[in-house]
Amino acid sequence: MDNKILKLNTVLLLTLVGVFIIDQNIKLLFIEGFRYYTDCIDLILVYNKGVAFSMFAFLAEWLKYIQLVMVVGILIYVISLKQLCYALPAGILLGGAFSNIYDRFIHEGVVDMVYWHCGFNFAVFNFADVMIDLAVVWFLILHFKPTLCKN
After folding, report:
1. DSSP per residue over 78-130, as a string?
2. Residue 112 catalytic?
3. Catalytic (active site) residue 103
4. Which of 39, 103, 129, 133 is catalytic?
5. At what angle do helices 127-144 and 3-31 cross, to 10 degrees?
6. Is the pLDDT at 3 greater than 90, yes or no?
7. Edge-first strand listing for the sheet containing 36-37
8. What pLDDT digit, counting tens, does each position of 63-115 carry?
C-alpha cells in the first residue's frame, strides 16, 4: 500500500471513528435523562424511526439495512477514488451515518435531541445529522471547485 492510500485510509478512519464517538456520547447524555428547554431550542429525547422529517418510517426494520448497504457503498467508492481531499469529508459523513445506523440497531430509531422552534417548528436532529450536512456541502464545494482537490 503506497503512502497516499495509507494517508487517505488513516484520515478517513480516524475522522469516522471520531465523529461516531462524539455523537454516541452526546446521545448517551440524553438517553440517561439530560434535558434543557429555552424559548428557541429545546434539548429533548426523540427516537426517529424514519429519516429526515420521519420520512420512510414505513420501511420499519428494512430501513437500517438499506442505509447500511448505501453507506458501505459510499465507503467503497471513496476509497476507490484514491483522492486524499475526499478523506476528511467522507470520514465526517460516514461517522455520522454509521452512528445513526448504529442507533437503529440498538435503540430501534435514531436518537435525536435538538428541537428548533423559534419562529417556526423545525425537525428534531442530532450532531451526526449536522456532520452529514457539513460533509455534503464540503463534497459539493469539491465538486464545483475541482482545483481544491489537487492530489
Report:
1. HHHHT-GGGHHHHHHHHHHHHHHHHHHHHHSSEEEEEEE-SSS---EE-HHHH
2. yes
3. no
4. 129
5. 150
6. no
7. 36-37, 41-48, 110-116, 124-125
8. 789 889 999 999 999 888 889 999 999 999 999 999 999 999 999 899 999 99
Contact 113, 27 (CB under 8 A): yes
Q: What pairs with residue 44 in β-bridges?
A: none
- In single-letter form, the type of residue at position 54 comes to S
Whole-number Å distance between alpha carbons of 116 and 122: 5
Which helix (H) or strand (E) segment holds residue 37: the answer is strand 36-37
Q: Quickly tell me which residue has 467503497 as its cell.
A: 76
Residue 86 and residue 77 in contact, taking contact as beta carbons nearer than 8 Å: no
| Catalytic residue (choose from 39, 42, 103, 112) | 112
Whole-number Å distance between alpha carbons of 102 and 93: 14
Q: How many CB atoms lie within 10 A of CB 62?
A: 10
Cell numbers for 54: 420521519
CB 15 within 8 A of CB 92: yes
Residue with cell 449536522: 130
14 Cβ contact list (under 8 Å, min separation 6): 91
CB 11 within 8 A of CB 87: yes
Q: Can you tell me which residue has the cell 467508492?
A: 77
Question: What distance in Å separates the CA atoms of residue 150 and residue 130, rounded to the nearest whole number?
Answer: 27
**pTM of this structure:** 0.91
